[in-house]
Description:
alpha+beta; 3 domains; six-stranded antiparallel β-sheet; 17 helices; 10 strands; 60% helix; globular
Amino acid sequence: MFYVFALLLPFLFNISFILGIIWFFIFLLRNKFYNLHSILILFLLIRCFMFLNTPNSFLGNQFYVCREVFNYRNYDLIFLCNENNTFVSYFPVDSNINYFDDLYLSKPVFVSDINRNSYYKSMNVLGVLKFESFKVLKSTSTFLGTIYKFKANFKAFVIKNLNEPLSNLFLGILIGDRSGYSKILSEELRFVGLTHLVAVSGMNVLLILNILKKITWVLGRRNAFIINSVFVIFFAYFTSLTTSVLRACLMSLLNLWGEYHFIKLDPHKVLYFSAYALLLLNPYFIVYDLSYSLSFLATFALISIKNTENLVNNLKLEIQANLVSFWFTLPVILFAFKSLPVLTVFSNLLVMIPATLILYLGVTLLLFYILNFDFLYSFLFFSIDLFATYFFWIVDFTKRFPIMTLFIDNLLLRVILFILLFLVFLFYLRKKFIF
Length: 435
């Protein structure tokens, strides 16, 4: 009951906050004030109260760039902060603004867009900040700024050596960068159920970390733990701190700590802790950030499958994993996207191996780019081109199927479908799980 209530708290902030306080005191009385859950719910209530506070409306003219700068085709997306608030703003292409720069904005105006309210809340920003002109007052070199600048240079290097849309697909799989995606490409990937493969997820973290662990063990347990932990933190920032990556990186850090101290952690408890920690970071994740829900539901499904450790080497378990992940994420897909991806499992199985190989080749290319092994670039780009071309061939092939994805606008029909599919899970798929 505690976990359900805690996760639903931000749904109706004003009402649920009052109910949360009442329930909290009832919970304390019933448990005689000695329960870890009471402390956790108190922390979450305090965090929700902080989000209920009315933001300071004072703007001023000076701001600093407080997050990574995202370069799109027609504009630069920049997050601006002052002493109290965070805003998102759109600058001309190639504005040459970097992380932690101090800016002076002429006649800044705050604009709230109701249609994008969910996006703003999931990013923990107030809204759009418009202005007439800007001036860079000071540029400060920081460690994060160096990482972001390196990422921008690597992205430009890939675009220069790999044609579109292959370069866009590669950058999406490797670092989750979809800034170069056209609307048509995005819709096609969504139609065939492959969007998650071009958004960095926990699978990317695990695949790369498993390879790194096999290499670093020769350096000793302590050094391997430090190197692997630093990599996880670096990878989180390098891939723009998305909620799915934050979840995977936090779980990876906890598991690395457990392995270092010879402690076997319960994967479900590690998942619950990660979910709770991200809600403390931003309680609106549970409502407005669909990747939060999809990531945790899919991960819960995967870690609940018997013999999860054999997934990579067992086709039957791989199919089963795709099926249960589909069933567990179905409520979000069905009601948020108003669609039913009928043959998603089929399309995912066709591209899983090439997508994994593209990821491995990308990590190798990134390593060679750092070491400046330019004599090996041609072979790597040729291989990436080959597998990316196959990936798009699968997209073109599967999108011709008339029942690949069903779009369902009728709410009643979506509810009926959900109930039917839930009954299928209850009486058949549930046997495949350990609870």
